[in-house]
Amino acid sequence: STLFHLIDQYTFHPMIAMFVHASSDQIESWYALFGLNANKLIMIIVSLATAMSVTAIPLLSGAHARRDYASISSQIENTLELFLFVMIPASLGMAAIATPIYTIFYGYDQLGSNVLYLSSFTAISLGLFTVLMAILQGLSENGLAIKYLVLGIIIKFAVQLPMIKFFKVYGPLLATNIGLIITIWLSLKHLKFRYKYNSNRTSRRFIGIAIFSMAMFVIVTGVVDFGGRIISPERRPTSFVLVTLAVVIGGLLYAFLTVKFGLAQKIIGPKVDRVLEKLHIKV
Questions:
Q1: Which one, of 205, 209, 215, 221, lies nearest residue 253 by Cα?
Q2: Which of 52, 59, 150, 164 counts the most CB atoms within 10 A of its CB?
Q3: How far apart are CA 155 and CA 66, in angstroms?
Q4: What number of H helices and E strands is found in the chain?
């Protein structure tokens, strides 16, 4: 992540100056929108999701030491599913509340909100890349993890100029996504080939997570749009009310759907039922 941002730091200003007539201060303020402001916010959810999912890495190292390929495949599935279960709704939720949450931290700025909206989706590929690199390290494939990282940086650097040419301020984020997605694809391919990782179960659960997350995204977007007509998303106090309302509604909806259809129980395990019992909730 830091290396990708270093590329942006040194290339954004000269590259965008080639295509846009703007003052040096204006270009620096554009860079701050995604390089500093939006990045700080998305790294909160990336850190949360990766911290939760990489707890399975020590088990992976043990299975690798025993050459237990069935256990390796199972641990990879558990790690990726837990990551997706947290990361996808968190990213879509962040996108849905992009305008009011940007206002709370940095003041109202429509371009800044748009950049945060796009950054929220970049968070998924950034987090997945981080988790896959941790998995490779858990399998004692540090050298390969470094090779994939270098390849991702090279791809990002190669597509940076055309992306900035066509998409201006959004270009660096799209270039980062391209570099990360290719690296993610190669990592998954390697895990399937070398460790017989079967992605069928993860794919099925990913579809469920995506559907429930999209339902939550639509409802939260509606809450923010409707609420934004009643109270202004351009002022900090009212934005805070909007964000609180949207997060509570979105969080409860996602929790209800995943528990109701048994997805949370499959991914998190019997802990979910124990929590529901303590809260005297029947689903």
A1: 215
A2: 164
A3: 36
A4: 13, 0
